[in-house]
Every structure is written in structure tokens, then in C-alpha cells.
Amino acid sequence: MNALTALALLVAVITPLATMWGVNRQLRAQAARDAILHDTQRLDDRGARLRGAYAKVLRAADYLQSAMYELGWYPKGRPWEAEVEYPTVTNAATYGVTGGGKHTVYHDVGDYSRVNGLAEQAQTLMSEATIDIGMEHDSDRCLDYYRETVLQQFHAVQSEAVTDGVVIDLPHDVATFTDAIETLTQLARESLRALVTRTP
Fold this sequence. Notes:
With 200 residues, this protein is an alpha+beta fold. Helix content is 74%, strand content 13%.
């Protein structure tokens, strides 16, 4: 075997090996890039989910503030009307026909359906937010502040309106509630920042 044949044989063996090594190296590099992209996308999805959860907390507080305004405008409830049916007997002995009438009854106070609807929307948002945030960690200062301060302030005004029929110091209650929402917003930002920067 001469040197030229040996060299040709060596090239014939090394070329496919070098090609396979290059392809393998490219595949590994692509897999590493895909893993980084997947992790980045997963972190982006996680961040978006958490931002949405804290936004729900703030929207829930906004619903409670709207309900508080509603209680200030209508502390005894909104006026409402209802149709009442009552039976009448006309010529029952002669014809065997009975009929009924309708009458509209007007009430000056007592309809809290708007307040209750706003409070239910707030509760729904808080339930969803608690689930999303609870997937990340057990205790959250923002959720605790909402439950212990914001919700309690709303219930105090609601109780005062329903029990006494008047909200005695509504401007003070609204100002205190607005301050509580500002604190809640700050806590939401801090909690979100801490969770997003923490790796899962």
C-alpha cells in the first residue's frame, strides 16, 4: 500500500466521522438554544400570569370602592319596584272563570343588588388571584393586606349603611379606603417584583 492509497483511505474514514461530529455539535448547540428559549418563554408566561393575578387583586379593590360609593349614594338601598300578582274572582259562580290582576309596588329603599353584585365580582377576582399567586408561594403580603385591611374597611361601611341606614363619615371612609388601595398597589408591585425575579 502506497502513501497515496493510505491517505485516500484515511480521508475516506475521517470525512464521515468529521461530518457526524459537526452535525452532532450543531444539534447540541440547537438543543441548548431551544432550552434557553423554552425557559425564557416559560418565565415570560409565569410573569404574565403573576401580573394578571395582581391586576385582579387591584380590580377587586376597585370593585369594592365602587360598591362603597354606591352605599354612600344609597345607604338604605336603591329604590325599586316589583309587579305583584293577586287573585280575583269574577263571575266564578256563573261562568267558573277565575282571573288575576297585577299591581306594581314601588319601594323607596332596600335594593342592594348593585352593591352585592360588585362585592361578588370582587370575590371572584380574589379567588382567581389567590389561586394564581398561591401556586408560587404560601403567604403573600398583598393578599393578606387585602383580606385584613381593604375587605374589612368595606365590610365596616357596608354594615354601617345596612344597619343604620346612613354612612356617618363617608368622606373619611373613602379617603381611608383610597389610602388602603395605594398601599395595596405598592404591595402588589413589591410582591410581583420579588416573585418574578425569583427563579422557580
